[in-house]
Design brief:
3-stranded antiparallel beta sheet, binds zinc ion, 6-stranded mixed beta sheet, alpha+beta, single chain
Length: about 200
C-alpha cells in the first residue's frame, strides 16, 4: 500500500511540473498579471498580484502590525491616480475600485474613509486558524479592479503604471491589452513601466 501512495504522489508532481506556470494556482513572487481594456470612454484595469508583494506575508493578519500593513497597502491601491497616470488631455477620472483577497476581510481592504474601524472576527478568524495548519505552503493573491471614465478617449494612447514605486518587490507585470481595434500584450518592469497603444 505504501508503495502505491508514493507512486501516486510522483505522478501528481510530474503533472504539476508539466503545467504552464500561469495555469496553476501557485504564483511567482514579484510577478503580477494585468488586463487593460479600453472601450469607448471606459478604461478597466484588473490586477492579480501575490499578496507577499503588497504586505510581505500571505495569511490573514494576526497582529496589529500586520493589520496596519494591509490597511497601508489598501490605501495605496485606493489612490488610483498615483498608480495609473493617463495623459492629462484624456481627462480620465477613477469611478470605481474593488479589492478582494481570500485571506483578507472587506473592512481591511476598504478605502481609508469607508472603514468601520473594528474588523469583524467571524470568517476571517476561521480562515486564520485553518491556515495555521499548513501556512508555510500557502499562497494568496489580491485581485484588484479599477474603472476610469475618460472625457477624451481619443487622446488615450499611453498609460504609466506606478505600482513598482509603491511596491518595490514587484519585478514584472504581464499585461494583456484590449484597445480600440487591437489586442496586444506587454511586459512592464520598474525600468519600463509605460504602456503604449
Ligand atoms: Zn505566494
Amino acid at each position: 500500500m505504501k508503495h502505491r501512495t508514493v507512486f501516486a504522489e510522483v505522478l501528481v508532481c510530474a503533472a504539476l511540473l508539466a503545467t504552464p506556470a500561469y495555469a496553476h494556482k501557485a504564483h511567482e513572487h514579484g510577478a503580477a498579471r494585468m488586463n487593460l481594456s479600453v472601450e469607448g470612454q471606459e478604461v478597466e484595469i484588473e490586477l492579480e498580484v501575490p499578496l507577499a508583494d503588497l504586505t510581505a506575508f500571505e495569511h490573514a493578519p494576526e497582529t496589529d502590525a500586520e493589520k496596519k500593513a494591509v490597511r497601508d497597502a489598501a490605501a495605496i491601491l485606493h489612490d488610483a491616480g498615483k498608480l495609473f497616470m493617463f495623459p492629462a488631455e484624456a481627462g480620465c477620472r477613477s469611478t470605481k475600485i474593488s479589492l478582494e483577497s481570500d485571506v483578507l476581510s472587506d473592512d481591511l481592504l476598504a478605502a481609508p474613509g469607508a472603514r468601520k474601524g473594528t474588523a469583524k472576527h467571524g470568517a476571517a478568524e476561521k480562515k486564520e486558524r485553518h491556515d495555521d495548519h499548513e501556512k508555510a505552503e500557502k499562497h494568496a493573491d489580491l485581485d484588484a479592479e479599477w474603472t476610469f471614465v475618460c472625457r477624451n478617449p481619443e487622446k488615450l494612447r499611453r498609460l504609466e503604471v506606478g505600482l513598482f514605486k509603491h511596491f518595490p518587490s514587484l519585478r514584472e507585470i504581464d499585461v494583456q491589452m484590449t484597445t480600440p481595434g487591437k489586442q496586444g500584450a506587454a511586459e512592464l518592469t520598474p525600468q519600463s513601466a509605460i504602456l503604449r497603444w
